[in-house]
Fold:
Amino acid sequence: MGFELERILTETEEFLRRNLGSSARREAKKRRAQRQIEEFGRRARRAGLLAAGLLATLVVVSILVGGIGLLTFAVALPTVFLFALLSMFRPSGKRRAEAPRGEAPAALALDELARRAEEWLLDRCDALPGRALPAADRIIARLAELQPCLAELDPGSLLAGDARRLIGRHLPRLVDSFLELPPSERATSSESSQRLIESLGIVADELGDLLAQASREKHLSFETQRRFIETRYKEDDGLKGE
Structure:
């Protein structure tokens, strides 16, 4: 009876974690939807410019050669719009790099790598054990916070190298190697699942340390301004009673 109750509670917890989601995952999905809208806008603008350029070229050629036959226009116009339509399926420059697959693309900017890792992990949350989701949520939240800090980081620094290895290599290898296990080994109550939870927690903590180091200059700037305000105004009696 006790074992059956424990199983029911575990399944209920699993169901709630998966179906209710978390604020970290909801915010990550909103960010991804916004990026998809922006990507569609970039593709649409590119397609429009391509169609306009081809049509302008067609008009110029028509003027230079003294007119183009109706049949030529009948063939050229659908061709122009076909090329424009096909260009909609080609990713823009910001979307060409692949998501992490165990090796971090060397040419990929660190903030972009963190963004891709955020989306990559979000897509794999449904395949992770329910009890691993809180740790995964922490990682997703940290990756989102890290992106503006990593954008300002010197790519050649030791901290940048650590970030690239952790985000683009070690994290995806950990998750992918777990997902390659047999289904029985990936069950919520399995030893492998417990080890995954512990490892994801370590990654989340490490990303927190990375965030603290990457934002150190911002903290120093804030403390400098805070001390200036306190020194300048806190004990300034000249401002009181006026």
Q: What stands out?
A: The first helix runs from residue 2 to 20. Residues 33 and 39 are 10 Å apart (CA to CA). Residues 43-94 form one domain. Helices lie at 2-20, 23-64, 70-87, 110-124, 133-151, 158-179, 191-214, 216-234.
